[in-house]
Here is the input.
Amino acid sequence: MIFKRKQKVVENLAEANENAIFNKETEGLSQGQIVFRRFVRHKAAMISVFVLFSLIMIVFTSSGVKIGPFTIPGWWQYKFDQLLDLRTEGCPPGVVGCPTLDMVPSFIDGTGMGLGMHPFGQDDIGHDYLSMVMRGAQRSIYVMVVIGFLGGSIGIVVGSISGYFRGWVDALLMRLTDFVITIPTIIIGSVVGYHFGNLGVGFLAFYLGIFAWTGLSRLVRGEFLKLREMEFVDAARVAGASNRRIIFKHILPNAVGIIIVSITLLMSGAILLETALSYLGFGVVAPDVSLGSLISQFQDSFTIRPWLFWWPGLFIITIALSINFIGDGLRDAFDPRQRRRLGKKEKAASRDQAKIAAASN
Amino acid sequence: MKLNRLMRAALAVVAAAGLAIGVIAPAHSAAKTTVSIVQSNALTGLNASVSEFNLTFNVDVASLSGMGFTYYDNKPALVDNTAYGSYKIVSKKPFKVSYTVRSGQVWSDGTPMNAVDLLLSHVTANDAYSEIAGLGDPSDARVTPAFNSGGYGGIYAESVVGQPILSANKMTVTIEYSNQVPDWKLLAPGPSPVHALMLMAEGEDTLQSVAKSNAARERFLKAFTTYNTATLKKIGKIWSTAYNIDKVDGSTNPLLLVGNGPFIVKSAVPNGAVTMVRNPKYTSGPKVKSIKTVVFKVIGDGTAAAQALKNGEVDVYAGQPTGDAVAQLKAMAPAVKIIGGDQAIYEHVDIRTGTAFGTTDTYNGVFAGNSQKALDLRTAVLLAWPREEIIEKIVKPINPSAQLMNSLMYFNSEPGYKDIITKSGVSKFTEGTQASRNAKALALVKKYYPEASASNPVVKIKLLFGAPSNTRRVSEAALAKASVAQAGFDMDVTPTSGWSSFTKNAKYDLAFFAWVKSAILQRGNVGTYQEQNYQGYSNPEIEKIYTELNGKLLTQAEIADRFLKVETILMKEAVSLPIFQHPAVNGVSSKLMGVAPSPLSPNLVWNLWDWYFKA
Amino acid sequence: MFAYIVRRLGIIVVTLFGSSFLLYNLAALSGDPLEALRTSREPNVQQQIIALTRQLQLDVPPPIRYFYWLKGILSGLVGHIDFGMTRTGHPVVDQIALAIPTTLRLVSGATVLAIVFGISIGIITALRQYSRFDYAMTFVSFLLFSLPIFWVAVLLKEYLAIQFNDFLGEPTITPQWIFFASVFSGIFWAAIISGSRARVFAIFGIAGTSTAALLSILSATKWFANPGFGPIVLFGLAIGIAFGVTYLSTGLGNSAALKSALTMAVLTLILYYPNQWLFGVSNKKLVYVLMIVTLFVVSGLVPMLFSKIDRGPIIRTSILAAFLMGLLTVIDKLMQTWKPYMETDAVYFRPVPTIGQVNPLLEPGNFWINFLDILVHLFLPTTALLLISFAGYVRFSRGTLLEVLNQDYIRTARAKGLTERTVIMRHAFRNTMIPLTTIMVVDIMSVIGGAIITERIFGWIGMGTLFNQAIGSFDLNLLMGVFLLTGFLGVSANLVADLLYSTLDPRVRSGAGKK
Here is the structure.
C-alpha cells in the first residue's frame, strides 16, 4: 500500500517535471510560434503537408497555364479532352487502353521503369487517363477549397456573432441556419441546371459552399457560448474592450483549434460530397471531369480495368487523408493543454529527478 | 487479466468445437422452378392501360397475367395466339373484322371466357363511346373521363365505326373500321375479366361462384349495350383506381388478380419485389414448360444488379450497361452467360433545317433552308459524322455483333433493309474511309468558307444532347466533335440538362435522338410530319406518301416502295442519319435455358413459358 | 422552459412553412414532368399530356399549387391530413409510412454500432495517445472516412457476400488465410494491450496461436456450415462476460458484484435447454415478454443474496451481464437456425445477400428463419454504413476525452487516490459524453432522411429512395411529404440538442436566452 502511494507521488512529481520542461520550451515564444513548433513536431501532419503540397504542385502543373499572351507548358503532353488513338498493344485480350506505367525495374523484367505513353491508361474512346485524373484532381481540389473557404467563413461569422450576442440576433441567425439545413442542395443544382444549362464547376462549388456552413456555424456558436462565460472574457470586458475586440482578439483565438478541425473535416467531406453528387448525376458533368465523376463513371470497371477505378480513388483518399491528418496536427498544436509526447530520454530524466525528489522527502 | 480471459475463451471455443459434429451440406439435385429477374423500376399498378400506368414493368406484369389474340416474338413478328382465339376479315368494304374467342377457356377464378370480355377494350379506347355513354370527353383537359384510359385518342378511336356486334353464341365480336387500317391486327380488342370488374363495382371483395360471375358479366353486357352511365361509371372507377396498387398480399381483393395469363400476381411489396405464381387454369397461350414462380426484384443500380447475379440472388439481369459491365458479366462465366441483342431503339443524328413547328424561335443557322449552301453543309457534317468509330468504340464493347445502321425505315434485321440501303442513296455516306469522307466534306465546306481547314474549323455549330449522366452520349459527342473538326466544323458539345425543353430551340443546329419503335407499324418511324419532328423539316412529297400509307391497306411490296421513296428524299436532302440500334444485354444464369429477349415490350418475359432450369 | 420550448416549436412551424414554400417552387422549376411524353412518339401522346396535366394540375402556377398542397396538410388540424398522391397514383402517406421503418431498420443498427464502436475505440486511442494503436486507428478511421460509400459497397459485396457464399459451399479455410488471420489478430491484440516489449511479444504469440487453433478447428469441423456455441462454449463466454462487465462497472475488487455476475453465467448454462424449448413455443409474444421480465427480475434479485449494502452498482452489473448473456443465448439460437435457413429453397445455400431487405420467396411462419433472414439482409448495408460513419465518433470522442483528461477536476480525482478505472469511467467518460450526446442527437435525427446512395446500392426502399425518386420524376407531392418529415426532424434535432446541452452542462446558458 505504502509502495503504491509512493508510486503515485513519483508519478505526480514526474508530471510536474514534465510541465517544467514544457514551460521552459515555450518560454518567451508568441502563441503563433508555440503553435507552429507543436505542429512541426506532429509527424503525421508534417508528412501530410508534404504529400498534399507535392500533390497539388504535380496536379496543377500537369497542364499548361495561359497568362495573357504567354503559355507556360505543363509537364504532361496531353490535354484531358484531347482524342488520341486507342492503344491496345500489351493489353490483356478484350481490354483497350491499358496503362503503360511500368514500375518494375529492368533487372527484374528487362523492360525498365518508365511512364510510357499513357501511364494511367486511356478511357473508352481514347482520352489520356493521366490527364483526366489530373484535371479531375484540379477540379476536385478547387471545389474543396471553395467549399472550405465559403463554408468556413460564413460558418465562423454566423456562429460567432450568434454565440456572442445571443438574444434575438442568435435566434434570427439560428433560424436562418435551420432554414438552410432543410433545403436539399440537390434541388438548387437541378433548378439551375434545368434553366441555365451547365454552369460548370465554379458554380457547383459556389452553391455547395453557401449551403455547407450550417454545421460549422452551430459548432462555433456552441464554442462561443461556452467561452463568453469565461473569466478572461469578463476581464476583457471590464477593461473596456469593444465587442469586436473581444470576439476577434479574445474568443476567436481560443476557438480556433476546433474551427480549424471542423474546416478540415468540411473540406475532406466536400471531396466526398462532390463524389456522391457525381454518382447521383448532380455533380461535375462531362465533358469536364472531377475525381468523383471519374470514379462513379468507371465503377463498373472495377474488375475489368481496375486502373480506371483505382487512380481517382487513390487521389481522393490521399487528399482526404492528408487534410484530415493536417487537421489533427493543427488541433493538437492549438490545444494549449495538449502536450507532445516526450522522448524516452526526456521522460527518463524527469522520472529520475522525481524519484530523487520523492526520496529526499 | 484480459489475457486470461482471451485464453479461456479460446480454450472453451476449441473444446466445444471439438465436440461439434461436422455436417456437410447435401447436394441439391432437383432443378429450380423459381426464376428471379432484375427490374430497374417498381410496379405501380396492375392495370397498365390506365393513363400514367403504362410503364414497362406494369406492362410486363400485365402481359404475364393476361393473354390476347396476338403477341410479339423476338424476331420481332406478330404471332397469332390461336390458343386464345382467332380473327378474320369478313368484309373489305366496309372493312369488317371478326374476333372469335376459343371456347373451353376459363379465367383464373374458373369463370368461362367469352367475347363479352372483349367489349371493355372498346369502352377504354373509343372516345366516341365514352361520350355517348356519358362517361366524359377524354380530350377535355379539365375532367377525367370515367375510364382514365391511356388508350383514347389512338388509331382505334380514329377508325372504328359504330359499336362492336356480338354474335348469338357470344363467342365472336365483329368490328367495323372506317378505312382499311394497315395495322388492323394490332387493333384486336384485348380481353378483360369484366365479371370481376362488375362484382367489384357492386362491392364484392371475394371470388364468387361461376354462376354468380356469369350473371355479373351479363349485367355488364346489359350496361354496355344500354349505355347505362351509372353502372359504367362505377365500373370505370374500379377500372381506373382499384388496380393502381403497388402492394399485393393476403388482404388484397382477389377479384383484382383474376387473369387468363400463365402467371398471376401473388404478392408485391411497394417499390420492391413482385412475386407471380403459375395460374393452374391457364390454357390461353403456349404451354408453360417448367417455371412455377417468378420473382421480380427491383434494383436501380447496374453494378448492384450484376453483383446480385454473380451471387445467385437473381437469374436474369436485363440492362443497358456499359462495356465494362458486360466484360464483368463475361468474367462471371461459366456461372453466367450473356445473351446479347438489340433494342427497338435507334440512335440517329438530326439536323435542323428550319424553325420548329409550333414555335416562334426562328432558326437562321448555317443549315437552314433548301439553298445549295445549306444542303452542302448538311451533307458535309453528315459525311464527317464518325459513325463507324462510334460503333467500334462505344457500341461494340457492349454488343460485339453491333452493326452500322444505314436505314431510318428498317432495322438491319428486317427483311426490307438490304434492298432499301442499296437504292436509297445512303451509299454516299458509307463510301470510302472516314478520312476520305472527311476530305470530301471539307471540300464542300471550302466552297463557302475558303479559309476552313482541319486546323481551322470555322463553321460554328451546336449539338443538342441531354442527360448529363448518359456517358455514352458524351463519348459519342466527343468523337463527333473531333471528326467534324476535320471537315471545318467547330461543334459545341456541352451537354444540356433538361434537354427535352430545348428540342425546338433554334440555338441548336443538330441533335442526337433515340427513337423507339414501340410496334412494327406500317406508318414508318421517321418523324417527317412537321408536327412530329423538332427540326423544322417538312417536305410535301413525304407527307403525301404518309397520308397514303395510313389510309390504305397495302401489300408488303407497295409499303417497301413507299418507304424507299421517303428514305431517298431524306438522304438527298441530308437531314438525318441513323447510327446504331441500341444494344441490349442480358446476363443470364447459365443454368437457365430458353431466354430469348424480344426488342419489343414485354421484352424479356414474352416467352417465360419456354424457360427452364438445367438440373 | 416550457414557454421556451413552445416558442421554439412555433418558430419551427414558421421555418418549415417558409422553406416548404421555397422548396415547392424550386422543385417545380427544376424540370419538366412531361419530359418523357414530349419526346414520345406514340400516336395518342397529346391525350396523355392532357391526362397528366390534369392529374398533376400543371395548369395551375406552382405558387398557387403550393397552397392546394398546404390545404391538404392543414386539414390535418381537423383530423384528416392529406399529403396528396404520388405521380404513380399512390397516397404519399402510405409510401412514407412504409419507408420510415425500412430506413430506421437500415440506419439504426449502423448508427448504434458506430456510436458504440466509435466511442470505445476513441476512448482507447485517447488513453493510449500517440501509441502504435492510436496511430493505426487514426489512420484506419481517416481512411474509412475518406472512402465513397458506393466503393465500399462494391468491395463488401464482392468479399463478404459473393466470396463468402462460395466459401460456404466448401467451408474449409486455407492455411494461408489462417496464417494471415492469426498474424492480424496477434498484431491487433498486441497493439491494443501494449506494454513492455516482452509482453507485446507474448500477447502477439498467444493471440496469434489461439486464433490459428480456433480457425483450424472451425475449418476442420466445417463449423460455418452449421454454426452454434453449444452449452459449454456458451458457458465459457458467459464467464468472460461476467468478468468483463464487473471489471468495467465496479472493478473486480467488488466480490459481491463478481459473484452475482458469475451466478448469472451459471444460470445461463442451467437454463440452456429450457431456453431452447421456449424458443420453439408457438405463442412467441407472450413467451418473450415473460423471458425478458424473468431476466430482469432474476438479475435484479440475485445481488440481494450477496450484498446488503451498496446494492445499486451490483444490481446494475448483474442486469448488464444477464442481458449480454441472454443476447448470447439468442445468438446461439440464430446460429442453430443458420443451417435450416441455408437449406430452404429460397436461400439455396447462398445465405449472404447483396440486395434487398428480405427474401421475397421465404415463406412467413418460422419466426427464427425469418428473423435470421432480416439479419443477413442487414449485414452488408449495416457494415458499409458503420465503416464510413464510425470514424467521426472515433475522432470526436478521442479529442473530447483528451481535453477532459487535462481538466483540473481529473487531476483532483487522481490526487484523491482514486483508481484509474474510477477516474476514467466515473469522471472522464461521463464528461466526455456531454458534447457527444448532442452530436448523436443531430446524427440520429438526420439519418432518418435516409442514406440515398446506400439504399440505392443495396436495393432498399427507404426515405432516401423516395427522395431520389421524387426529384428524378419531379413528383412534388412525394418530395414535399419526405421533406416535411426530414425537415421537421432536422430542425427539431437542433432544438433537442440545444436543450440537452444546457441540461447536461450547467455551465452553458444557451436555452432560454434571457433567463
